[in-house]
Prior knowledge:
alpha/beta; eight-stranded parallel β-sheet; seven-stranded mixed β-sheet; 12 helices; 21 strands; binds N-(aminocarbonyl)-beta-alanine; binds zinc ion
Amino acid sequence: MSVVFSGGTVVTASGCIPADVRIEGEKIVAVGGGLARKGDEVHDVAGKLLLPGGVDAHTHFEMPFCSTPIADTFSTGTAAALAGGTTTIIDYITQFHGQTLGEALSIWHSKTDGKCHCDYGFHMGVTDWNSSVKEEIGRIIAEGVPSFKMYMAYKGVLQVDDAALYQMLEALKKEGGLLTVHCENGDMVAERSRELIAQGNRGVRYHPQSRPEAFETESVNRLLTIAEEADAPVYVVHVSSAPSMQLIVSAKMRGTAVYAETCPQYLLLDDSRYELPGFEGAKYVISPPLRAVKNQGPLWAAVEHGLVDVLATDHCSFNFVGQKDAGRDDFTRIPNGAGGVEQRMMLLYSEGVAKGRMSLPRFVELTATNPARIFGLYPQKGAIIPSADADIVVLNPGGSGKISAATQYQNVDYTPYEGWNIDGAIDAVFLRGQRVVEGGKLLEAKAEGRFIKRASFKKGG
Ligand code: URP
Ligand code: ZN
């Protein structure tokens, strides 16, 4: 039997159209007027928005991050994603020192096989660059993982040097891969942290001082220089500040193939959170840190004008009690990261679309279509078009909600957005044609998420 959504407004990256959507099995087969036939299961979605399922291109689930285990497993993280309207995530594998990329990939497959509630792909995080790792790049791409990551921060743990970045970019250009990069000057972060601690400045409020905007800007500038020398495309994860965004915009205008990602936390929260009484500020210890509020206007402008390419979360949850509190007497011991995969879509809808800071098509473009396009999931994911997977969010613009740790699916004891009022509500989420969320509640008990093998970005590859 076919399913038809009737009477709603279909939102794509290029516009909003009143149209029916017809689904057969796992696929969308038609979008247009009057699609219902006798015997169809017809859902009346008059007054509702039909959005493509969200694609969160930046998550970290179920791994030790700088030796602290992330609170969300693949099971809890992907369940939370679905509840929040995200039907596909791309999670970062970490190749730890001494591991081959192949070993790291099979570890991630064993963590995820049969455990994920939404569909998923991987990026390969490379921390131990050498000639045999370079040899593996083509094989990893052939396994369906054509995007990679390197860190310019986290000295002694994840950080790589400029030569590694350059060699990696050259290798990926040849093999048809895309490099994503965490831009902060890790040597300077380590040095500034050492200085602050030596001066007795151990509290949470010193976290942003240990990694100021300038350390990000310098790193973005260095990366762009290296990428331009290699003549290879590059994707900058979690751009947090206006000066870094300006560098990326200038590079785009020079013709450099650079993509910018930012996240709800940099658009909506600011560094005053580090001054909260007690140890409360630890909830916002992330890297890059939250910035001065003056960055938010330029970042929103970049979102509105399509200069930001992707809105992702960098979901990396740690409990306040039992994990963040390891750093009560030394901010450098607070695990860096926070959750958000569940809140991304509705926070951005409410704060972005409902408040008039971005259009509905831009919202769809940045939360679903662009991440799918950039990372090779399109047209299977990221759009409501015939032949795409029937990943659909039914959003009620007249609904409302409130964010709270008490009601979230994320397996973490707080949310940075506690008490935020949300305009709009998710009525239902469909994953490949199957209803998995109803009235904001997860229906699906089984983990039906599939690994999505992506192709090389090489032309004809
Ligand atoms: O604080 C953060 N962002 N933790 C997650 C890992 C990263 O840096 O992307
Ligand atoms: Zn991250």
